[in-house]
Specification:
The complex is a heterodimer of chains A (about 140) and B (about 425). With about 140 residues, chain A is α+β, with helices and mostly antiparallel strands. Chain A has helices at about 10-15, 20-35, 90-95, 115-120, 125-140, and strands spanning about 1-10, 40-45, 55, 65, 75-85, 110. Chain A has one domain (about 1-140): Alpha-Beta Plaits. Chain A has a four-stranded antiparallel β-sheet with strand order 2-5-1-6, covered by helices on one side. Chain A has a two-stranded antiparallel sheet with strand order 3-4. In chain A, strand 3 and strand 4 form a beta hairpin. Chain A starts with a strand and ends with a helix. Chain B has about 425 residues and is mainly alpha-helical. Chain B has four domains: about 1-105; about 110-230, no CATH class; about 235-315, no CATH class; about 345-415. Chain B is built from 20 helices and no strands. In chain B, helix 9 packs antiparallel against helix 10 (about 215-230). The relative contact order of chain B is 0.06. Classes of the chains: A alpha+beta (about 140), B mainly alpha (about 425). The interface of A and B includes residues 39, 89, 131 and 139 of A.
Chain lengths: ~140, ~425
């Protein structure tokens, strides 16, 4: 199964403060462990939300663009890993071994990734077609 | 912590730690069987203690320390001196090594070396392929005997026996637990790659069963391949095998229809291919190619798979390149199946008549007798030449020959046209 581990933001990460050399080394070591175990499929860090934006969806098809930065720091996302594991618990066990990405207390959230089979009946041909178009477009843009 | 939570947490820890644990113990004891027994002792101790005490902060070191203590106990009681003829000195040495062992201090490259040694031992050519497969899944993949049996649709006792016998064979042949030297290396690596690919193919083809893909085995094989490639990053064939499995697995979501029927490559909905795996596979292949050594059979097959992965529509497939890659593959690892695939590629690149001509040369190939893909390919080319009655005959022959129920349905449908 695939699992995504989501690193939440901190005041420092939101301020664009780069991790210390020590932290980078510890994180590098952790990443290497996961790569060597064949578990890590992908992983990236995100710029602070001051460089981000949100599109908000109103009731009547309205769209509004809101530029960052955003408040509620602890709910924001600072990075992620995509992992291939045999059980959800295995992902939890890996993340328990991760160095704290920030100087302050914080959280890493672990979520199972939907795979095609999980959608079942809900995933109608129309929905599928739409998703396919988007994915095809994403592929073109690579 | 509830019993059930503890059990699942221990399973997760075991999954992460057991191969390294067994690898270190195998180096120290010189025996894969004893190493696994000691590791199992440590697991039992964890199952007994962790539900009460919680999972320790460094579970790997805890397991190693426990296994080490068990080993010293066993030495004291003479259980490990099963080989009486071995000089006493060995036992003294073993005791010394066990005492010195500090699980928290093991250097990363030492752990890597142990693990690679264990992989080469589990995949030693002295063992039959199915024994190597079972032992590798057990020792490196940390699958239980029950899980292996279920995946391979055989009885649990069969797998258990296979593993016991494999360990005995390794001990009797006195196979040293080490990474082979340069002279042996290529041949021994081929033996390892063969095991990983066999696991992948078992999941992919599931020829004996009704299920088209047993994805778990494929994921397991990809994981094993990545572990190996991580330990041997300058080995183009290890990288090539991982790329091949990833590029192949990327197509799984598109490989079956809603009713479970097989969808052949040209008809697959490419938007459903897995972009994460394709990205990884293409990057891995690039790395293999950049090592500047001639590509081996796995890297070449990955390069062929990559031609399909890069094509956004079937029409964009670079069939000339595929035909050339099959030529290269045929010259280093030629087989009737490779020539069959080459004929199909030539048929796509240079027209059905050219492909058919090559296939005709394979008609009397004993290795392809009873192989459903030969008539299936002939049917395909004949159909494109407008020789529909002949094509239908070939499709029904192919349908009779295939062992896969889903595939049979597809072929029968084509024969009925």
């Amino acid at each position: 199964m695939r699992v995504m581990a989501i690193v939440k933001a901190s005041a420092d990460s939101e301020a664009g403060k780069m991790p210390s050399e020590e932290m980078l080394a510890a994180m590098g070591e952790f990443n290497e462990e996961m790569v060597k175990a064949g578990v890590m499929l992908a992983g990236e860090g995100l710029h602070p939300t001051s460089k981000g934006a949100r599109v908000s969806f109103g009731g009547e098809g309205e769209r509004a663009v809101i530029d960052g930065p955003f408040a509620e720091t602890k709910e924001l996302i600072a990075g992620y890993w995509l992992m291939q594991v045999r059980s959800f618990e295995e992902a939890v066990e890996w993340i328990k071994r991760c160095p704290n990405p920030h100087d302050d207390p914080g959280e890493i959230e672990i979520r199972q990734v939907f795979e095609a089979d999980d959608f079942g009946e809900e995933f109608t041909p129309e929905l599928r077609e739409r998703e396919e178009r988007i994915r095809a477009q994403a592929e073109q843009n690579q | 912590m509830s019993e059930r939570d503890a059990r699942r947490a221990i399973d997760a820890v075991w999954r992460i730690e057991s191969s390294r644990l067994i690898a270190a113990l195998a180096r120290i004891t010189g025996d894969v069987g004893i190493a696994e027994d000691l590791a199992q002792d440590a697991l039992l101790a964890a199952l007994e203690q962790w539900p009460r005490s919680g999972v320790p902060d460094n579970p790997g070191a805890w397991l190693m320390a426990t296994a080490k203590n068990r080993a010293i106990d066993r030495l004291r009681h003479g259980e490990m001196a099963a080989r009486k003829e071995e000089e006493l000195g060995r036992e003294v040495e073993l005791r010394a090594r066990l005492t010195e062992l500090d699980p928290a201090e093991a250097a990363a490259d030492e752990i890597d070396d142990d693990l690679l040694s264990l992989i080469f031992t589990a995949c030693h050519p002295v063992l039959a392929t199915e024994a190597r497969v079972a032992l590798t899944l057990r020792l490196i993949g940390s699958l239980t005997t029950t899980e292996i049996a279920r995946a391979f649709l055989v009885k649990e006792s069969t797998v258990a026996q296979r593993i016991v016998r494999a360990k005995r064979t390794l001990a009797e042949a006195r196979v040293p637990i080490e990474v082979p030297g340069p002279a042996e290396r290529e041949q021994r690596l081929a033996s390892v790659l063969e095991v990983i690919y066999a696991i992948f193919n078992e999941g992919y083809a599931a020829s004996a069963g009704e299920e088209w893909i047993r994805a778990d085995l494929c994921e397991e094989a990809m994981r094993l391949g990545r572990v190996l490639a991580g330990l041997m990053p300058r080995e183009p064939e290890a990288l090539g095998l991982v790329a091949l499995t990833e590029l192949t697995a990327a197509r799984f979501p598109a490989r079956t229809g809603p009713g479970g029927e097989a969808i052949p490559l040209p008809d697959q909905d490419r938007a459903r291919w897995d972009l994460v795996l394709i990205g990884r596979g293409l990057k891995g292949l690039e790395r293999a190619e950049s090592l500047g050594r001639p590509l081996g059979p796995y890297a070449l097959q990955a390069a062929i798979a990559a031609c399909h992965s890069r094509a956004r529509t079937p029409e964009q497939t670079d069939w000339e390149r595929i035909a050339a890659l099959y030529d290269a593959l045929d010259s280093i690892a030629g087989s009737p199946v490779v020539r069959l695939n080459r004929a199909v590629a030539v048929g796509m690149a240079f027209g059905p008549a050219a492909g058919l001509e090559l296939l005709d040369g394979l008609a009397d190939e004993p290795a392809l007798r009873g192989y459903h893909l030969l008539p299936a390919a002939r049917g395909e080319l004949l159909e494109r030449l407008g020789r529909e009655e002949e094509a239908a005959l070939e499709f029904s022959r192919a349908a009779e020959l295939t062992g896969n129920a889903r595939e049979r349905e597809v072929l029968e449908a084509r024969a009925a046209l």
